Amino acid sequence: MKEKLQLAKWIDEQLSKDEEKNIPDLELYRKIKIYSADMQAPALNKNKVKQKINSAKKANVSSPMYLKFAATLVLLLGIGSVLFVLGKVSVHGQDSVSYVYLPDQSKVHLQNNSSLDYNRYFWFLNREVELSGNAFFEVEKGEKFTVNTTHGTVEVLGTKFTVETDADNLKVMCFEGKVAVYFDNQKEVLLPNKSIKINLEQKQVMPSEFNYNQPIWAFDNVKFDAISFEELIAIVSDKFSIRVDYSALRNPSAFTGTLQLDNLEESLSVIASTYSVHINQINKNNYIFVEHEME
Amino acid sequence: MSQDLITEVCEERIYNQLFEEYSDPIYHHFYYKFGNVEWAEEVVQETFIKLWKKCKDVPYTKAKSFLYTVANNLLINKYHHQKVKLKYKNENINTNQDNQSPEFLLEEKEFKNRLLKAIENLSSKQRSVFLLHRIDGKSYKEIAIIEDIGIKAVEKRMSLALQHLRKNIKEI
Lengths: 295, 172
Known about the structure:
- The structure holds two protein chains of two kinds.
- A seven-stranded mixed beta sheet of chain A has the order 2-5-6-8-9-12-13.
- Chain A has helices spanning 2-11, 17-20, 26-37, 46-61, 64-86, 229-240, 264-274, and strands spanning 39-40, 88-92, 98-101, 107-110, 115-119, 127-132, 134-138, 145-148, 153-156, 160-165, 169-176, 179-183, 186-190, 194-199, 204-209, 221-227, 243-245, 255-260, 278-283, 286-290.
- Chain A is an alpha+beta fold.
- Chain A is rod-shaped and about 145 Å long.
- Chain A starts with a helix and ends in a 5-residue tail after the last strand.
- Chain B is mainly alpha-helical.
- Chain B has seven helices and one strand.
- The model of chain B is unreliable at 1-6 (pLDDT under 50).
- Classes of the chains: A alpha+beta, B mainly alpha.
- The A-B interface holds A 4-9, 11-12, 25, 28-42, 44-46, 48-50, 52-53, 56-57, 60 and B 19-20, 23-24, 27-28, 31-32, 37, 40-41, 44-45, 48-49, 52-53, 85-90, 93, 95, 111-112, 115-116, 119, 130-131, 133-136, 139-140, 152, 154-156, 158-160, 162-163, 165-166, 169-170.
């Protein structure tokens, strides 16, 4: 090891004259030593490098391009957030059903105690509403229309549908066109006269069908198409908060026809005449269908 | 260096002083290693830009080793070896002032050319150590810091370099 490092010691002038003698080919090494000390390397152009460093230093502190970009971004964000705040429209359904026209003339029937939020300035970029409660939508044709609820998202292109939410459930009914419902990473597509009820808590998804052309709560004039008698009575009972005894009718057939659902008397008499029976009021909230009018 | 300036690498005057002191050794070191002036220049540039960016974190006393470490890391990742081109300062210098015969001078010239060739053919590690010592006059201790290796390793590289040069010159 020592031997090997001897050359290094020698060229660094750490060896005595005596020690030098052990080195083979000393004359050659001596030439290498002398001539190599006379070499020169290319010189560094310090000014050039310094200029580059200085410009990099400045760029590091504040680049004009970067500043412009940042300023533009801040401005756009500012305008955006002002429009976002000013554009916010919040509609709350009052005592009865309210109509809301969205900026593209899409119509929303909002049930009482339901509320709808959207942004009128961003509407043409993004047809999107937030709904809590129940609403019937008649959507104009166009880009995707989205209804966000706490339970899931309903997406359509142009159609008529209701979205009903309460604390636990999301119910979507499709009256026209095609509706996509997104919930919990799932997607369900509804065709006309199909509905779906979703309870995320209990992981229940209940598809179902219905046989009328408009949501009962939103319209008084509802056309039924071959709806089962039981279902019809359930709807009417629900609408007027009454109980109807129809045990007198045996296997009543399906009902097709229009009911004026703002008028209890009229609705019941239309049903009664359709099935050739009579309707009698027992007390305030109880009615009964009978074969023959009781005297 | 007065005590109050010790941590002020961010201060323009100190930074410039560091540049004056270390830009050449770094430049030469990487030129000897890789034989490309543009790369060596780039290394100096990148290294000092990095020092500026980190000037708050690098105390003055650590600036030197910071510079060498950054430079070494840059090159390991980036560059490949090219031929080193060197020159003699004086064409007329020779080893024997008594003998100035044309034959002798021709022989010396031939030797000098062979030496340049032999240096080109050294491995970059050996060449770097050899030239830092011979051209820049750096001590083995300084070279050890620049190369980020031990002094023994420097001496070993130097010895190997000399052995290779001898072998090479005789073969050419």
